[in-house]
Write a structure and sequence with these properties.
The chain is 55% helix and 13% strand. By secondary structure, it is an alpha/beta fold. A hairpin with a 2-residue loop joins strand 1 and strand 2.
Length: 291
């Protein structure tokens, strides 16, 4: 069970913002740039507190989760990089981001994984009667996911589920069908499980028409929470090895994401670390100080 958030657990900027909404609240959340990608410096509980407040604004907002693969893809895709950086809340989904930030002398409190946030939001929704819509995956897995969530949180309100066609890009007709579902069911929270970066692009392109206060691209969270794919043990997650567990479980589908993605991330991180040391040395060199 997700522990309850207490006001005194929040850093000072959040305490002064508990009665404010929307843009002002988001603007007060500190963030850092890790290899060109923005990540907010908040824990899971702090993020849950902020998202709870944002639901009440009724203004559509996008929440993204980034890991080493996200950063790797964004190095050669400026459009995707801008999309992630312009999302309203950007959370560090991988321990690689937390550790990479530390190597660059930056601080991110902890990893905030998509499955953990989805579960926490489902528990919050069951208490506050927020309406949830599940978009993505297969009909069978959506059925299993709905059963698991309803059993875990008996008061949860899942107002709809939909499994779109498996394709690289949804058609305008399919988009309008989904938007119609949103208008008919009026969810407070939309969880999208279409895999990265398809889900992020789709949310960004349709956010205003969806008219859902919170839209989150949670990727494999549907598979983990439904039980279709076993999640890594907690001790592996804490050591930043959940990617290895997933690679072993689905090597054919995920080898490129983790082996090539991690290699690119580590290369870029190493170069940034070296450049950071050079700049630090130059600033403190006798010649520079004399000038």
């Amino acid at each position: 069970m997700t522990p309850q958030l207490k006001e005194q657990e929040l850093p000072l900027p959040f305490q002064t913002a508990t009665n404010t909404f929307g843009r002002d609240l988001i603007a007060q959340i500190p963030f850092v740039s890790v290899l060109g990608i923005r990540f907010h410096q908040i824990s899971l509980q702090q993020a849950l507190h902020v998202l709870d407040k944002l639901v009440m604004t009724r203004i559509p907002r996008q929440v993204t989760f980034g890991n080493a693969y996200t950063v790797a893809l964004c190095q050669s895709n400026s459009q995707l990089r801008n999309l992630i950086n312009q999302s309203h809340i950007s959370l560090a989904d991988g321990m690689s981001i937390v550790w990479g930030a530390r190597m660059l002398k930056l601080k991110i409190p902890e990893r905030v994984a998509g499955p953990d946030m989805m579960k926490a939001l489902c528990e919050l929704s069951s208490k506050k009667n927020y309406r949830i819509f599940l978009l993505g995956s297969t009909p069978d897995n959506l059925y299993r996911l709905r059963e698991v969530l309803t059993k875990t949180f008996p008061k949860i309100s899942i107002v709809g589920t939909y499994s779109p066609p498996m394709c690289s890009m949804l058609s305008p007709e399919e988009n309008q069908k989904i938007i119609g579902y949103m208008r008919a069911t009026r969810p407070d929270i939309l969880f999208v499980g279409l895999s990265f970066p398809k889900q992020e692009k789709w949310i960004a392109e349709n956010l205003s028409e969806l008219n859902v206060p919170l839209c989150l691209g949670v990727g494999a969270a549907f598979d983990f929470l439904s039980g279709r794919v076993p999640r890594a043990p907690e001790w592996l997650r804490k050591r930043g090895l959940e990617w290895l567990h997933r690679l072993i479980c689905e090597p054919v589908r995920l080898w490129k994401r983790y082996l090539l993605g991690n290699a690119i991330f580590l290369t870029v991180l190493f170069n940034a670390r070296v450049w950071h040391k050079i700049k630090t040395w130059y600033r403190h060199s006798p010649t520079h100080e004399h000038n």
